[in-house]
Design a protein that fits this description.
This protein is of the alpha/beta class. About 65% of the residues lie in helices and about 5% in strands. The protein has 36 helices and 8 strands. The strands form 2 sheets. The protein has a 5-stranded parallel β-sheet with strand order 2-3-4-1-5, with helices on both faces. Strands 6-8-7 form a 3-stranded antiparallel β-sheet. Helix 7 runs parallel beside helix 9 and helix 12 runs parallel beside helix 13. The protein is globular and about 105 Å long. About 50% of the residues are buried.
């Protein structure tokens, strides 16, 4: 029953109607615990016409044993939304049925991990299994940064919204991870013209203090969204006397207005709806309210709880002993729990367990939330506490020894599931954070460290830096603990592996010095282990970082040293990495034949290892070298061979890159129709996976092809879009190239006019080229020499001296 919320319902309805009209937004519902934020959404949803929109929801995990697990579950709320979207069961109109597997494949391959391997629907079909395994891997081949991960998610939701309007509830965002709040902001900027409505609940007090004692990022994100007019906020007010009367009427149809009682109830509850509804039940059970809701007790004789939590504690204390004990055991698993694990914790027979769960459900303490499949294809019921305060009250009622015992039991049960999923690489953020919490609480620090390392890798798979670094810190903290003596080899392996992961993170973020230091730390641990392959990996990382910093001679020397070690130890993968670095350095130094030789040797190793992706990369690299040599037919041959493999293995980013290279070669050879066709295919893929640098680069390529074809207007359209996007993503190289191309477009326009207008256009062309070249000299840029030649040609052709350039 929903009372006293007409104003809030009005805002929800208004936002919903605006969304249906193509004005999507984010609506924040805020207020303290017990004010009914989630209940408001659920009741409002009932008023929406069935089949008019698709509704999905996800809740952030509440703390387990005072550990804020939600902050560690990188992007898990959004993954839960995908799990619900996957079934698309809420779409009643069969004509709107979603081919969700195809949507993931085409629009969001980096999110294939979010399709659960253990859901009641997700992996019944072998085809879905194939899709997910195809997209998973140690590195995310379908995105190169978190921005691409985010853009793919946005692409996916927009595709869904093209089929049916979409409503998403994100509950309890004050417990969410940093990456999830960042994705919310990223999404908000792109749904203002889409049929997508995001509802987000959080508690202001918890958001101010619950995130490790700091302000939760949801507060800043909310302010930014409101500042950009991409959302609204509903701050739920306390219930007034009229609402309290409506609650009483709802519970007691024969209720007669009692101003004194209503005033007393309003005063002691502060208008908190959870307090009011639960306290009314207590008063009735104690005989202070008759069957018509008339107050029959003495106000001074009634013990008044001091908070909504105190009311809930009183309500849970009144459960029968067996049900209370059972539910207190369930709290160890979390606010959401399974009958499978609860059966193991309580040692109850299934029918007795289900009977008591039914009793708790009827009492309103818990609610059933469906079913799921777990290890061994066993199906279990999923339940959740109706409010987090019920969970807190029951967990806090346990003795410390009981908590320790239950956490150990949960650890042992979840560890089995973790081990079963190791081969499938399906360590979800939720499983990782819960298992980590239970492992630490029962002193299993070695397992806790292993889980934290797995969770860090899983987080970085989606470029969730903050969560990955948090888990890396946990590994180091466990390894340094004096409470447990790690076996030396285990400790050195863990510390070496987290150092290499830290090096990965710093490298992608452009923190090359930090990355080199982390690689050095990893190297020191691996040398203690005398692990040749890992030593080669760390050395190759240092060589690659030197190359990225422009220290080509030092990079090549380090790579050659590593090459010799890898060859001596028979480490083909380490040898291939070293050859790649040497080949790229040789190419950068203009030693093209040497570069081809090293790339060819690398390709031979790829063939011996059956590494088709590596072969495709080397073919593409060799093609690039031939393009640098001006031997475009040979370059195209290598690029086409690379393209065939990349398409076959599902490397979409690589496919788009190689298509762009082939398009460039067709343009140079004068076949502009083929050039445009390849560039458009490449652009389509880059847009689908959200690779913004690729989008900017391909629009630049399209602009060049249109200019050479003589279609100047389309050339300008593409070049301007390329330049705008390059500026947004801070790519100086692409921005400089766009500016130079504006100069060549201006020259092409000058050739079509006469007189002073031509002179002005030529000067405009020269000004663009000067500006672009100035930017290129700061980088430097590989195309600078070509544009310098074009600038000199224009000056000579039109007799424009340097001093006349404006």
């Amino acid at each position: 029953m929903l009372v006293g919320r007409s104003q809030e319902l009005g805002v929800l309805n208004e936002s919903y109607q605006q969304m249906l009209a193509g004005q999507g937004s984010v609506l924040f519902l805020t207020g303290e615990a017990g004010l009914g934020k989630t209940t408001l959404v659920h009741e409002w949803r009932k008023s929406i016409a069935p089949g008019s929109s698709l509704y999905v929801e996800a809740a952030c995990s509440i703390p387990i044993g005072n550990v804020d697990v939600g902050a560690l579950e990188a992007l898990q709320p959004w993954a839960d939304v995908i799990a619900q979207l996957q079934s698309a069961s809420a779409i009643e109109d069969k004509s709107k049925k979603l081919d969700f597997k195809r949507l993931i494949h085409d629009s969001a391959p980096a999110w294939a991990w979010a399709i659960p391997l253990i859901g009641d629907i997700a992996h019944a079909a072998m085809e879905t299994n194939r899709l997910v395994r195809e997209q998973r891997g140690e590195a995310n081949a379908n995105a190169v940064n978190q921005q691409q991960v985010f853009q793919q998610y946005v692409n996916l939701l927009i595709k869904v919204a093209d089929v049916t309007p979409l409503i998403i509830l994100l509950d309890d965002m004050h417990w969410s991870d940093i990456s999830s709040t960042s994705l919310l902001f990223y999404l908000s900027r792109q749904i203002t013209v889409k049929t997508i409505l995001v509802l987000c609940t959080y508690r202001p007090d918890d958001a101010l203090s619950g995130f490790g004692g700091k302000r939760h990022p949801i507060l800043q994100i909310k302010n930014e969204i409101l500042r950009y007019s991409a959302g609204k906020e509903i701050s739920l007010h306390y219930l007034d006397r009229t609402a309290i009367r409506d609650i009483l009427i709802g519970n007691f149809p024969a209720y007669q207005t009692d101003d004194e009682f209503e005033q007393w109830l309003e005063k002691i509850s502060d208008g908190n709806s959870l307090f009011i509804t639960q306290f009314i039940k207590t008063l009735q059970e104690d005989g202070h309210l008759d069957e018509s809701g008339k107050f029959t007790g003495e106000y001074d004789a009634i013990k008044i709880p001091d908070s909504a939590l105190a009311v809930v504690e009183e309500r849970t204390a009144r459960l029968n002993d067996e049900t209370k004990e059972l539910l207190s055991y369930a709290t160890a698993e979390g606010v959401e729990f399974t009958s499978y694990i609860l059966e193991k914790l309580s040692d109850k027979k299934p029918m007795q367990l289900l009977k008591e769960l039914q009793t708790a459900t009827q009492a309103g303490v818990i609610e059933q939330r469906g079913k799921m499949k777990i290890s061994g294809n066993h199906t279990t019921g999923v339940y959740g506490f109706s409010h987090s305060l019920f969970h807190k009250a029951l967990y806090d009622s346990l003795l410390e020894e009981q908590k320790e015992f239950l956490h150990r039991q949960c650890f042992e049960l979840l560890k089995v599931e973790w081990d079963n999923l190791t081969e499938s690489d399906d360590h979800s953020a939720t499983l990782s954070s819960k298992l980590l919490t239970h492992a630490e609480k029962c002193g299993e620090l070695e397992s806790a460290a292993e889980v934290a390392l797995g969770a860090a890798r899983a987080a970085w798979h989606n470029f969730a830096e903050a969560e990955a670094l948090e888990m890396i810190g946990n590994v180091r903290r466990f390894a340094a603990s004096t409470e447990y003596r790690f076996p030396p080899k285990k400790r050195e392996t863990l510390l070496g592996d987290v150092a290499m992961l830290k090096s990965d993170i710093d490298k992608l973020r452009g923190r090359y010095d930090d990355s080199a230091k982390a690689a050095g730390d990893a190297l020191a641990q691996y040398q203690k282990l005398q692990d040749g392959k890992k030593i080669h990996t760390a050395l190759n990382r240092r060589a690659d970082l030197l190359r990225l910093q422009g220290a080509f001679q030092e990079s090549e020397a380090e790579a050659r040293k590593t090459l010799e070690l890898a060859q001596k130890d028979g480490d083909k993968s380490g040898e291939a990495e070293a050859l790649t670095t040497i080949g790229i350095v040789r190419n950068n130094l203009g030693e093209y034949q040497d570069a081809i030789e090293y790339f060819t040797r690398n390709m031979e190793i790829g063939e011996s290892l059956g590494n088709r992706g590596g072969i495709a990369t080397m073919l593409n690299n060799i093609g690039n070298v031939y393009a640098n040599l001006g031997e475009f037919p040979q370059a195209m041959d290598y690029h086409k061979r690379s393209l065939e493999i990349r398409e076959a293995v599902g490397d979409r980013s690589g496919t788009a890159t190689t298509l762009g290279n082939i398009g460039n070669e067709y343009a140079i050879l004068g076949d502009y129709n083929e050039a445009l066709a390849h560039h458009k295919r490449s652009l389509e893929i880059f847009e689908s996976i959200g690779e913004r640098s690729g989008i900017s680069r391909l629009r630049l390529c399209l602009g060049i092809s249109y200019r050479k074809q003589g279609n100047l207007q389309q050339g300008w359209d593409e070049i301007r879009q390329a330049g705008t996007l390059a500026a947004e993503i801070k790519s100086k190289a692409l921005e400089a190239g766009s500016v130079c191309e504006m100069g060549l477009l201006s020259e092409a326009e000058a050739l079509k006019i006469e007189g002073d207008a031509r002179t002005a256009k030529v000067k405009e062309a020269v000004a663009y080229l000067e500006k672009g070249l100035s930017m290129m000299r700061q980088i430097p840029h590989s195309e600078a020499r070509n544009y310098e030649d074009e600038l000199e040609r224009i000056r000579n052709d039109f007799s424009i001296p340097v001093e006349n350039v404006s």
